[in-house]
Amino acid sequence: MALLAHERYCDEIVRLTGELRATLRGADLGATVPTCPDWTLRELAEHVGRAHRWAGEIVRTRATEEVADEKVPDNSPAGDDPAALDAWLAEGAAGTADALREAGPGTEVWSWSWDHSAGFWARRMALETVVHLADAALAAEVPYTMEPEPAADTIEEWLQIVAFAQKVGYSGSAELPRDGRTLHLHATDVPGAEWLIRLGAEGVTWSREHGKADVALRGSLTDVMLVFNRRLAPDSDRVEVLGDAGLLDFWLARTSFG
């Protein structure tokens, strides 16, 4: 799958943060987030805002090593007023998008990943917001549907993160089987939104295709993405699991890096 344009990722950071802000208005900011039970809704929002500012500072300063949290300007909203949180989120998203646009996708900066570029951070922050917007919507009990391109890209990026984590031996990803078993993701509402994932000797690989697998996950693209990111249970009546459900459960348990 081709990446979205750099400018699109920058736009999505601002757009999705706007949706997050709308979700927070009138919501109980002290409510527990069901998919991130260690956080309240306010803490989730502050996490998103800090992530944006952190990535923006990395890009703005052309950092060659990890930036400490205390080095990031305005790293917390000014006060507990929901209006202050709203303004802080908006300013952070806009500032980070501006820094990313000014740098361009090819500018070299530090990252924890396989890709040391500003383009990596534009994509990472846009897709981070895709997932945490879902967390906020679940906590606020409002509907959530993601546009097809960012939803599909969220799945694709997560596969890259899992493969990278397995390669470097990070966390539970090292326990993923290498016996040739397969998983198939099939979005029923978007043509071509299918992934065949292979757990081979060389590690996790995948292709965009339809194919028979040991386990298949079927549903809308939004819901497949939510299950894949552990935001919707695989036994939800919104999706269908065919075949070896235990393999899907094992995958989900070993690909959580939070």
UniProtKB/TrEMBL annotation:
The keyword DNA repair does not apply. Keywords: Isomerase. It comes from the Bacteria. Pfam families: MDMPI_C (PF07398), MDMPI_N (PF11716). The keyword Isomerase applies. One of its GO terms (molecular function) is isomerase activity. InterPro entries: DinB/YfiT-like, Maleyloyr_isom, MDMPI_C-term_domain, MDMPI_metal-binding. Residues 149-249 form the MDMPI C-terminal domain. Residues 15-137 form the Mycothiol-dependent maleylpyruvate isomerase metal-binding domain. PANTHER family: CONSERVED PROTEIN. This is Maleylpyruvate isomerase family mycothiol-dependent enzyme.
